[in-house]
Specification:
Shape: elongated
Distance between the termini: 20 Å
Helix content: 40-55%
Protein name: PH domain-containing protein
CATH topology of the largest domain: PH-domain like
Radius of gyration: 21 Å
Keywords: Membrane, Transmembrane, Transmembrane helix
Strand order of the largest sheet: 1-2-3-4
Number of domains: 2
CATH class of the largest domain: Mainly Beta
Order of helices and strands: EHHEEEEEHEH
Number of helices: 4
CATH architecture of the largest domain: Roll
Length: about 160
């Protein structure tokens, strides 16, 4: 973020509860290792499967924690995470969409960008005119975030 634009408000993204996740994963890891030396081939197989499952969950939680994107609203636009700035003049509208049993605030741009690479994966299953979505936040519900973004866009556009 540049020094010229002061933030009006920062919406913190929801991140997984690290302490609760770490305790659960430690218990699962210890339970997984209990049967590594068992005589039964089935118990050893289940033990290795639990260890692999634990590692997959650890990687997924780490990615979710690191990749959580805060929304910083300024007079000129908003930041998604640390490096994605979108100006108010580029935003056509904000709306909501339900996906994966959760509601999100989505936005469309005046000139829609080409979807390629990670954007294509991240926006898979969404209508073509949607350029992105704002993450679920701790600070506001979906309707409050939508209302705030629309009011701020109207005020500074």
């Amino acid at each position: 973020m540049t020094a010229q634009t002061s933030s009006l408000r920062v919406f913190r993204a929801k991140r997984p509860n690290i302490i609760r996740s770490a305790v659960s994963l430690l218990m699962l890891a210890f339970a997984s290792m209990m049967f590594l030396e068992a005589d039964s081939l089935m118990l050893r197989g289940l033990s290795w499967a639990s260890i692999v499952f634990t590692l997959v969950v650890i990687v997924r939680l780490t990615i979710r924690f690191i990749a959580a994107r805060d929304v910083t609203v300024t007079e000129k636009g908003f930041w998604l995470g640390r490096g994605n700035f979108i100006g108010w003049d580029k935003v056509l509208r904000f709306g909501t969409i339900d996906m994966k049993r959760q509601s999100f605030v989505v936005f469309t741009l005046v000139t829609p960008p080409e979807r390629s690479g990670m954007d294509r994966m991240r926006l898979r299953g969404l209508p073509a005119d949607i350029a992105g979505y704002l993450p679920a936040t701790i600070d506001a519900s979906v309707s409050e975030l939508l209302d705030y973004m629309n009011r701020t866009k109207r005020h500074y556009s």
